[in-house]
Amino acid sequence: MLIQQQKIHLSSYSGLYDLIVPKDNLLRKINELINFSFIYEELLNKYCLNNGCNAESPVRMFKYLLLKSIYTVSDVDVVERSRYDMSFKYFLEMTPEEDVINPSSLTKFRKLRLKDTDLLSLLIGKTVTIAIEKGIIKSKSVIVDATHTLSRSNPFSTIEVLRERSKLLRKTVYQFDEAFKTKMPSKNTDNDLTKELDYCKALEKTIENEPSISEIPSVKEKLNLLKELVEDTGEELIFSKDMDAKTGHKSADSSFFGYKTHLAMSEERIITAAVVTSGEKGDGPELPKLLQMSQDNGMEVDAIIGDAAYSGKENLKIANDQNIKIIARLNPSITQGFRKDEDKFDYNKDADRFVCPAGHLAIRKARQGKKNIGENQVDTYYFDVEKCRVCPLKEGCYKDGAKSKTYSVSIKSELHKDQMSFQESDYYKEKSKQRYKIEAKNSELKNVYGYQRATSYGIENMQMQGAMTIFAVNLKRILKLV
């Protein structure tokens, strides 16, 4: 049963917050900036209103997850810190003497309450609304780009990740007690996941049996991260590979296994839209969604700033119909012609190759036709027929017995001619200088908020991670600009 309890209960100790939590504290400023009741309203239909035990406030549960994103800690540690950190208690709207939740409640909240909720759009929309209301967003341009996130399954095997976590734990312990090495269990040297899990559990038990070591905050943090990974690995033994993640290409010679987050951002560095896809998806096809979402969130858009991935014929047409300028260097290979949607391949700008629906990258390309004599030039991309012969998607794409598989695109159109002329204008050159901002934002997401690697398996969890991370990033940016 859900009862709305979003204000601090009366307590004779509540005055401590005014003494202990400074006015310029980040969490105090976030509480003053935003009314979190929209979370209660969004999740109301996920709870029974008149039956069962009282449920923990969805607003408080959401705030716990937000704290995890801001401080990059585990479920166990965010709850533990809220036991003694007065700024956490204040942010969570607890009385100073109030007890904390069980960490397992956060897992249930993610799986049961946030499931099927478009949290990504909801949270970005809320922050953009705040930024517009406070007069922070004044520009009418959006900068677009995509950043990749490695799956938990990649690039290391489960054993390698477990070994790295246990190594960090041991290293932290030895900083406080070098002699503790003699008490440690023997390391597993076999490439056997079950034995490695047994070793990690033995390591956990050894350290937990020494409260003088295990209660040291930095040791406890590493210990909890290892325990969380051991528990997750136990659940994923049968499905050790992330089924939603796909192989994407950062260049013709390098690849990654994971996801892409396609972003739109105002010139003031407020993220206005985001779409999470598997790693093999191209950047350009996501532009219409990013534009529409930014507009739905209240942005007026008269220019889109990006790289060559966004200068495709369809994108130019959509922008032209709305009198929007695309500040993106034209790549003639990106136009898709008049193919049906199901026949289109994705263009990967980094590798300068097309990727087929099965995720295979073209192995080479060749240009046909002569330039400047009135005929259309064509780029032809060649694929590895050995892969095509066994591909589950070959029907209608590859003919059995064929010695080659190619994909050709025309590189000439009126839209492209107009774009080539526009690229020489002073307006284009000046606006294109803004693109570096989104690259800096991608770096911030990864290096400050841990967005370089997925924290859970599956695209739904990746979308949730993106939602919480971008929400935290936008809130901090708004506070800085205010």
List the SSEs and their pairings.
Layout: H1 16-20, H2 26-33, H3 37-43, H4 58-71, H5 75-84, H6 86-91, H7 104-113, H8 119-133, E1 141-150, H9 158-176, H10 193-208, H11 211-214, H12 217-235, E2 246-249, E3 255-266, E4 271-278, H13 287-296, E5 303-305, H14 313-321, E6 325-327, E7 346-348, E8 353-355, E9 364-368, E10 378-383, H15 385-389, E11 405-410, H16 414-422, H17 426-431, H18 436-447, H19 459-481
Parallel strand pairs: 1-5, 5-6
Antiparallel strand pairs: 1-3, 2-3, 3-4, 7-8, 9-10, 10-11
Helix pairs in contact: 4-7, 4-19, 8-19, 9-10, 9-12, 10-12
What is the CA-CA span between the terminal residues? 39 Å
Q: Choose one word for the global shape.
A: globular
| Tally of separate domains | 3
Main β-sheet description:
6 strands, mixed
SSE sequence, one letter per element: HHHHHHHHEHHHHEEEHEHEEEEEHEHHHH
What does this structure look like?
The chain has helices spanning 16-20, 26-33, 37-43, 58-71, 75-84, 86-91, 104-113, 119-133, 158-176, 193-208, 211-214, 217-235, 287-296, 313-321, 385-389, 414-422, 426-431, 436-447, 459-481, and strands at 141-150, 246-249, 255-266, 271-278, 303-305, 325-327, 346-348, 353-355, 364-368, 378-383, 405-410. It has 482 residues and is α+β, with helices and mostly antiparallel strands. The protein has 3 domains: 16-117, no CATH class; 139-146 and 263-450, no CATH class; 158-235, no CATH class. The strands form 3 sheets. Strands 1, 2, 3, 4, 5 and 6 form a 6-stranded mixed beta sheet that branches. Strands 9-10-11 form a 3-stranded antiparallel beta sheet. A hairpin with a 4-residue loop joins strand 7 and strand 8 (353-355). The longest helix has 23 residues, at 459-481. The relative contact order is 0.12. Residues 20-111 form the Transposase InsH N-terminal domain. Pfam families: DDE_Tnp_1_6, DUF772.
